[in-house]
Amino acid sequence: MRSSAPGGLAPRVFDETEQASEEAGDDFIRLSFAVPRECDGWRLDHYLKFRIGRLSRTRIQEIIGTQISLVGRKARPSTAVRAGETVTLTRPAPAEPDVPRTFAVLHEDPAFFVIDKPAGLPMHTTAKFWRNTLVAVLREAYPGQHTEICHRIDRETSGVMLIARQPEAGAFLKEAFATRQVKKTYLALCKGQPPDEGLIDQPIKLLDTPTHVMMGAADDGLAAVTRFRVVRRFAGHALVEASPETGRQHQIRVHLAMRGHPLVGDKLYGAGEQYFMEACDRGISAELLERFDGLARHALHAARLTFPHPVTRVPLTLEAPLPADLIDYMARLPEQPQDAAFTSARSTPLPPAA
To answer: What does pTM read for this prediction?
Structure first.
């Protein structure tokens, strides 16, 4: 028997290989979602709340009448969606903030290429960004070519991104991520003095908070494991190499914050959800920048990716150097005194600047 309600399920958290079909014109944005099997028979308004959790129920009712369409039938809040059916949202294009729209290519291959994504460039269309996304920039840089993003990193995170040039390569690489055949290594500048190394094994899940994006520790959450080691210490900070063994949303940020070592510049898990929302709504004022540790983005960089070549299956490792903003920020931090504890990590040199 089909269900007409979400059955208590929380707003959806996407894994790092999932995305929606998106299109942008001069004055509109169009997003298309394929209804998954588990949502077969749900009311349309319940499905949209599940799929776009940040929207209020009142707002969902409004957009169903003006922005939502189904193929071959009228969209109503009570309409039962069907597995495999496409739900399309078409809305006016907003004015969007400026973002970095250029990137370095770290490696090129007939089947894929690897880029160094700049901090601030979002992956896909959101409520705020539509032209200024990695999808749009790739479309412009490689017109008529297949460019398939194979995994996800946060908008404010910089570093290594893997892009498939062929559908077959894209399918293989996404499966490699899903089956944990890819090793990811990040550099994170955090507050305080974490131990020289450690393993954080704590399930996390999407919390029921106003932003609908905040993750947190939960025994009934998804398994999340992060290994870390300190590579350089400062008087009140540490540069940590973090290797997530799972690919949960915000995993490294949540795990380090749980241990009392939030990332520098982390609006959500460092400053707090109130200030994160204020920055989203009004931009980053001088007062907010101070709350964000003087860094306009969180200090997380995807430094290294090791993955099987989609054709030869031979492991390949690509690295992205620390970007200039993090190098400059660390250059202003006071060094840890020579006679302080935890001196073992200080001898490890910093990765080269970009």
So the answer is: 0.76
